[in-house]
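hey can u check if this looks right to u? its 334 residues, i copy pasted from the old doc so theres a chance i mangled smth
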Amino acid sequence: MSQGISGNARPTIFNRGTVRDERSEVVREIEFVAHSVDPAEAGAYLVAMCNVEEPPPEPWVPMRPFSERVVGRPSRCTLPFLGAVRSFCHVPENVDFRLPLEGERADEPPEGFFTLYEEHLMRTRLWFPIPLVIVEFLNRLDVSISQISPRGIKHLVGLLVLGYERGMELTADYLEAFLTLSRVGTDRMYGFKPRNFMEVLKGFPQGDRGWKSYFFYVRLDQASVAVEWLPSFRRLWGVGVHNPFPPFPEDLCIVRDLLRGSPLFWGHFSPERVRAAVGAHQSRFRSSIDNVMGASFEDTSSSAVYATGQSSVRGSLDAEEDGEPTVDDPVWMD
């Protein structure tokens, strides 16, 4: 091997050929020689010059003990580990969990309950009550939250957190403009992928391939879902609707660029970061409620109009769907 060539260098066919002169023809001999650039060195150079960042590892979560599938039991969830999920994710006692019974299914939860998966709580940072904008967005797509993969929930949580950190509350119009529904497998499961030129989040780690086997039921009440959306919350599974012409708020590109201005790999979304962002959002909301209540007592004869976001397609639904978040303390899904 030539001097100065790394032992990890890859072979290539680019070599000075030997010229033969037979019958007035020129023929070049080609042989494999070691390349002069080490791929590891090239990768390090690109990282240094292009400011490429490696995705950080996902924060630690408790490991689920192995549990065999029991005949007649539709889910592999167990009460001991579901208790560990409740403790690790700081789920309060007024959020009621229930294990599925024989004959029950994920796509048809019993009356008064909806389906979630252990991965939804352990790895996506979702909090209770489920944010209004997520419920509205999923209703537009005619799907239940239990039809969305953990990676899809991470897209929603990440966008909301980035907005909270900048003092913005994204509406369903923005979520629909950023994301489009995509199938996961063949059993009416869905995820999200960014629309063209709208990617914000990246670096999602590979999840548990068997997450669909670990489902349970959550009681549908004001502890789990904001009271404004309880009547319209979708429990049962539907056929997802793809909107080829999503809303396009006039400041969409500005909002997209603002959201891209901080660490965007999912590994950066630690429980502490999510808690701080949502806590700041809740604090701002409480302040705005106090200001509004003070103004109403000062002058009850005048009326004020408030807007939570711009809507370019569903203007007739704004008054009904652009609800304000509840002021209850959020429950963190670490």
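The chain has two domains: 11-50, 79-283+310-321.
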